[in-house]
């Protein structure tokens, strides 16, 4: 069983917690991509326009976005596990109501409720991970949990298309996922405890800032260990990395929402093939995320992964419209899977978690995830609107590719702000170097 940090630090079988929290991401992303895969069937069933389908997809993320910061604050106050369990209960109810919808308005409200339930998960599970994983395994452990998102994305694509042939039609995947979400609550209750920092931990950190676990990180592989004081870098740093999160996630949510529909209506890949091709991306994401997380832990150099991954993700996203054969299209999606959303998340989350005080980590991570949540809202609706106005999805892929480059620039600027804050803290910590007015 995974146990919270106690007097002797993080202990217990943290790997079990990583597996269970990864399963949570499987269910969350399956609930998202099941809609994407069934989008054409839903449109045909109720006679909905492309713009309305885009709004339907975005509605899920509206409640998700609005509740990001409140759920982070509530997690800090009432406990991460409690809020996580409540969120999964709400998700299960939303999925059941979606499967019982008779008119578009009912399904729309069910998706909003499902999004509200999912809003608790990111900040809560990241807070649990940050308290329970050993520092030397934090990036790899975070990657391990997020790998479930890739597997869940693939599962949702397949469930949404293959279960749509059942008696319930496109409603069947949502009923199945509702049952699994309810069962997951019991699994968390049995395996994952409420993490609690040790009493006096903050005072200990204040008395001993030189301790490696509290105040140092390693600059890179083969380099000397550089001591970085524990410091709050301020809103400038958080603003830059949150903007970077939005820009890097835009293309992912474009493809997560529209790729099956795009392949079926614009590229001519009919039936189940339109759901099978997109699973290349999330299936590659799962192992790639773990590999990049291990590299990040070994290098111990913040931003190393992003500097490689984001330019390649930009190339892969912009190349999708130009790939005319199924093989070439799969190669572009595989490249994005190896360098896109989940890979970027690992580095961003690890950087922000390492730079935020433990007592406010839940709310800080919720603010970071707000960037991704805004991308969730914007990408489906804007893409649907642009496609209806222009008659083409291609321009949206080009915009998303450019956004990845801008995301890298934003992250690099944020790291400069962080470095300046750490430099000031270092000078203040050394007698005689603070200077006048410090």
Overall description:
This protein has a single domain (14-195, 231-423), classed as Growth Hormone, Chain: A, CATH 1.20.1250.20. It has helices at 14-37, 39-46, 50-66, 68-78, 80-99, 104-118, 121-132, 138-162, 172-191, 201-207, 212-215, 235-265, 273-276, 280-299, 304-319, 326-339, 341-354, 361-390, 394-429; strands spanning 216-218, 225-227. The protein contains 19 helices and two strands. Mean pLDDT is 80; it is low at 1-12, 198-229 and 433-438. It is globular and about 65 Å long. The chain starts with 13 loop residues before the first helix and ends in a 9-residue tail after the last helix. Strand 1 and strand 2 (225-227) form a beta hairpin. The chain has 438 residues and is mostly helical.
Summarize the structure.
With 438 residues, the protein is an all-alpha fold. It has 19 helices and two strands. It has a two-stranded antiparallel ribbon.
Features of the shown structure:
438 residues, mainly alpha, Growth Hormone, Chain: A, two-stranded antiparallel ribbon, 19 helices, 1% strand, globular
Poorly predicted segments: 1-12, 198-229, 433-438
CATH superfamily: MFS general substrate transporter like domains
Query: Cα distance, first to last residue?
Result: 47 Å
CA-based shape = globular
Q: How many separate structural domains?
A: 1
Element order: H for helix, E for strand: HHHHHHHHHHHEEHHHHHHHH
CATH architecture annotation: Up-down Bundle
CATH class reads Mainly Alpha
The percent range for strand residues is under 5%
Biggest β-sheet strands, sense, barrel: 2 strands, antiparallel
Q: Within the CATH hierarchy, at the fold level, what is the topology?
A: Growth Hormone, Chain: A
Radius of gyration: 22 Å
Supply the helix-strand structural class. Answer: mainly alpha
């Amino acid at each position: 069983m995974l146990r919270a940090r106690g007097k002797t630090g993080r202990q217990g079988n943290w790997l079990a917690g990583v597996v269970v929290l990864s399963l949570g991401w499987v269910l969350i992303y399956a609930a998202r991509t099941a809609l994407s895969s069934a989008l054409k069937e839903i449109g045909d069933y109720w006679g909905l326009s492309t713009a309305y389908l885009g709004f339907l997809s975005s509605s899920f993320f509206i409640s998700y976005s609005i509740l990001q910061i409140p759920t982070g604050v509530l997690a800090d106050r009432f406990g991460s596990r409690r809020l996580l369990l409540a969120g999964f209960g709400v998700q299960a109810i939303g999925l059941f109501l979606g499967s019982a919808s008779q008119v578009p308005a009912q399904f729309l409200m069910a998706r909003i409720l499902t999004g509200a339930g999912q809003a608790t998960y990111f900040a809560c599970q990241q807070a649990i991970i940050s308290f329970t994983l050993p520092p030397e395994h934090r990036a790899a452990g975070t990657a391990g949990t997020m790998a479930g998102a890739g597997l869940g994305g693939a599962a949702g694509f397949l469930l949404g298309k293959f279960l749509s042939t059942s008696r319930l039609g496109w409603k069947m995947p949502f009923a199945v996922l509702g049952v699994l979400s309810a069962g997951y609550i019991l699994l968390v209750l049995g395996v994952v405890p409420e993490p609690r920092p040790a009493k006096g931990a903050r005072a200990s950190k204040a008395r001993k800032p030189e301790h490696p676990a509290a105040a140092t990180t390693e600059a890179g592989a083969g380099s000397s260990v550089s001591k970085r004081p524990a410091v709050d870098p301020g809103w400038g740093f958080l603003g830059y990395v949150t903007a970077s999160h939005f820009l890097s996630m835009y293309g992912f949510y474009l493809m997560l929402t529209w790729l099956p529909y795009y392949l079926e209506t614009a590229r001519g890949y009919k039936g189940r093939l339109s759901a099978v091709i997109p699973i290349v991306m999330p299936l590659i994401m799962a192992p790639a995320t773990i590999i990049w997380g291990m590299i990040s832990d070994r290098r111990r150099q913040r931003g190393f992964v992003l500097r490689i991954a984001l330019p390649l993700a930009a190339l892969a996203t912009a190349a999708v419209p130009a790939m005319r054969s199924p093989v070439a299209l799969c190669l572009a999606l595989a490249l994005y899977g190896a360098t896109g959303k989940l890979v970027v998340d690992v580095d961003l989350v690890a950087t922000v978690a390492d730079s935020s005080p433990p007592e406010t980590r839940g709310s800080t991570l919720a603010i970071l995830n707000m960037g991704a949540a805004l991308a969730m809202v914007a990408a489906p609706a804007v893409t649907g609107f642009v496609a209806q106005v222009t008659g083409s999805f291609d321009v949206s892929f080009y915009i998303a590719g450019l956004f990845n480059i801008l995301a890298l620039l934003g992250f690099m600027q944020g790291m400069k702000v962080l470095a300046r804050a750490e430099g000031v803290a270092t000078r203040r910590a050394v007698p005689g170097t603070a200077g006048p007015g410090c």
